[in-house]
User: Fold this.
Amino acid sequence: MGGWIPAVWRFSVCGLSLLLAAASCARIDVDAVYAVRLAASPTDAAWDLAMPRLVKAGGGSVHGRLPVLAGLELDTDAVHGASASCHHGPPVTHPTPVQLRAYHTDRDLYLDVRWEDATEDRTPRSWRRTAGGWEIAPDDEDGVAILWSAGTGRFGCQEACHQSDFAVRGGSLVDVRSMFLAEEGAREEVWVWKPSLGGRQLLIDRTGFVTPAGAPYSTMNSRVARDVALGPEARRAGMFGKQDAPLIDGEGNPVTEATRSAPADRWAPAGEGNRVTASAQRWRHGWRVVFTRPLAVAKEVVSFQIGQRYRFGVAIFDGTSVNHHVVRDAQVFEVVAPVALSVAEERAE
Assistant:
């Protein structure tokens, strides 16, 4: 690491350098993610020495057939207090342990995200034709998203999750759950990784997710969702249901009688302006994803500066339970300013 050690780690309980601390010291609780400078891109050995920020992502749904919902004054922000999940559906699940590490060079930023997920899900949600008609297969892919904030107000994945076209029917909440920012003119940056897509850079604003080129990130391949003759509640209730069907196949052509399968979602290509890449591999009983992005970029997204702190949120996608888990509290990320500190100097202190 060229002799550069962040000041925040100088309190090592063993009184040694970072390298010795990582190897033999007692556990130290890390209150933020600190990106330390390296001369070159981090190796596996460097990642093993980084001190992780340990957090837990919670998920599941507290929605369902709850009569109390009928008495609530629902609005587009009700989801923030109703659930830690970005959508409703499966039952409440166990928290997911997540580890966060980071480095930077003079040019790039690296964020290493590791989480527990015993099931490896690489298949995107899709349609399949059966003897009884079209149905959505029970598979979906794993993934992770990092939401960066350039503002100072309330922030977190759940603050960006809103609901609209909502109603309570038979004790169940029927709504359209989607991600967008409530403030006009606001714009945040999102990094997403999924096995089928790789790493993506997205922007989220009042209209939802868009690519850096301005294209909508995803659209639902659903005949019911595109039926303008139906009301919002009917579209929501019927989307991906027994009476629904896909519009196009995997090649983007209209579905015919010969079509046997089709994607449930259409994803925009990374396109011009995408500056985020990601490498991924299975790690222990879960995933390890390393995002890479240039430190300094265009003004409309977060430009990381040495010595500055930034807030971010974390969402974990579990394809087996088809659920989102989020870290409820905004996390702190610091691009550490190098401090010249040798092992001999540290011992002298």
The longest strand covers residues 309-318. Helices lie at 18-24, 44-49, 78-82, 232-238, 343-348. Residues 45 and 155 are 34 Å apart (CA to CA).
